[in-house]
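Quick check before the chapter quiz. The format below is the same one you will see on the exam, so make sure you can read both the input and the output lines.
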Amino acid sequence: MKNLKHLTVAASAAALLSLSACNEPEVVTANAPDPQAEALANAAPVELPPSIQSTRTYRCKDNSLLYADFYTNNTVKVRDKKGPEGTILTAPEAGQAYAAEGYSLSGNGTTVTYTAPGKGAQSCKA
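Here is the expected output.
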């Protein structure tokens, strides 16, 4: 019985000792100043990347496939295989032909004319 009393006292002392080691909780106030407020106020405006306006798959005269992603900033990414790799072509103004070194694409509807290095101009249909 004496051992049980000593065990209870020891357990109580251990519990109190472990609770006394706890720190006070950190108090967060809603009116704390933002340390980056000045840097954010002076930052340049963020420009979003262009979004895809339309994506089309074309079958060309030589029976090859052409994948084209038309973007909102007068560019198009063309590729002959599915996947993220491709060539970016740019049009000087909306409605004009897209071009890059050795590449050209005119139109963005159901029929386009496409030229790539090593290939002549050919008509492609969506």
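If your answer matched, good. The beta strands are 52-60, 65-71, 75-79, 87-90, 98-100, 103-106, 111-115, 122-125.
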